[in-house]
């Protein structure tokens, strides 16, 4: 996972995020245009700890001035996630001996001439805040397979993530990358909050945690001609393969109709006729929309919920296309709810552009 260009790039140690190999010596030469300086962001430095970083080490060297940064390893990492150098050239040296653990190295860089989305610093004023606080925006490359990395995440896409969360694992939870593919992630590091609520999203459960000084806010890319990601879409009409018409103990009819499927509806929800096979719920969005995800919840008073589901889409309501995700050959099965009260989010990567969703 290495991409080096004159103005920005990303590099990682071999096997990242798996354990890096024994007896490895890697060297990268980062070179920006003359007259500019390099800005480096440490996405992950997880090397097996040892005295003076003897077993595994990361060292950054400026060949022109002789300045060196490091050596770094676990428990002796960089003092800050962003390193601003005064040089247009830096050599990155990564060495390992025999070891048992460690994800290795993930590092991004950009030149001061073209920081782009990689590293920009700006003052952001918040309402009721007497003084502005500093928000640092940066971008890193997350490889595939981050979902199963050891380590915890706190928070959710709407409130942000505690900055001690495993970054790329949080990006999967937030739905900005697919775990099977990885990809570029853009985020900002902003002032922390008091409490990070837990959430289940994209097959990952975040933890409920206390305050931190900083938090991570992920930014989803979207086409300017389409609605911003995160906006709740209005449903013009609901339809279903069948609906359950229950007769309660008092002999009263209770209709579990399709229109009761809207999230936030009080009381009972939609349910298919008991015993029906291949049941489906259909949403008509009124016009063709950009659909970036779905949130499901059970019918809380009755302890009913859907544990897994597939998704199909249509532009005309007649021809349906099953959702398979990025490069998938089989219909994607989404993980649903494990109880009747919690909300579960799943992202569509890539998004679905359609009027009808089943």
Kindly summarize this structure in a few lines.
Residues 1-112 form the CUB domain. The chain contains 1 helix and 28 strands.
How would you describe what is shown here?
With 358 residues, the chain is mostly beta strands. It has 2 domains: 8-219, Spermadhesin, CUB domain (Jelly Rolls); 237-357, Jelly Rolls (Sandwich). The chain has 1 helix and 28 strands. The chain has one helix at 167-174; strands at residues 3-4, 8-12, 25-31, 38-46, 56-61, 68-72, 82-84, 89-96, 104-111, 119-124, 133-142, 155-156, 160-162, 183-191, 195-196, 200-201, 204-205, 209-210, 214-219, 237-240, 244-247, 253-256, 281-296, 308-309, 312-314, 321-322, 334-335, 344-357. Strands 16, 17, 20, 23, 25, 26 and 28 form a 7-stranded mixed beta sheet that branches. It has a 6-stranded antiparallel beta sheet with strand order 10-11-14-19-13-12, covered by helices on one side. A 5-stranded antiparallel beta sheet has the order 1-2-9-4-7, with no helix packed on it. A hairpin with a 6-residue loop joins strand 5 and strand 6.
Residue share in β-strands? 35-45%
Which class best fits the helix and strand makeup?
A: mainly beta
- What assembly state would you assign to the polypeptide chains in this entry? single chain
| Fold-level CATH name of the largest domain | Jelly Rolls
What is the overall silhouette?
elongated
State the total count of DSSP E strands: 28
Reading off the top of the CATH hierarchy, the class of the largest domain is best stated as Mainly Beta
> What is the annotated CATH architecture of the largest domain?
Sandwich
- Rg over CA atoms, rounded to whole Å, is 24 Å
Helix-residue proportion: under 10%
SSE series: EEEEEEEEEEEEEHEEEEEEEEEEEEEEE
User: What summary fits the major beta sheet?
Assistant: 7 strands, mixed
* Spatial separation of the terminal alpha carbons: 37 Å
Estimate nothing, just give the exact number of structural domains: 2
Count the DSSP helices: 1
Low-confidence stretches: 115-134, 222-228
Let me know the CATH homologous superfamily of the largest domain: Spermadhesin, CUB domain
Average pLDDT number: 85
